[in-house]
Amino acid sequence: DAGITQSPRHKVTETGTPVTLRCHQTENHRYMYWYRQDPGHGLRLIHYSYGVKDTDKGEVSDGYSVSRSKTEDFLLTLESATSSQTSVYFCAIRGDRTFYEQYFGPGTRLTVT
Amino acid sequence: DQQVKQNSPSLSVQEGRISILNCDYTNSMFDYFLWYKKYPAEGPTFLISISSIKDKNEDGRFTVFLNKSAKHLSLHIVPSQPGDSAVYFCAARKRQGGKLIFGQGTELSVKP
Question: Chain-centre distance of CA B67, in angstroms?
Answer without folding.
Answer: 13
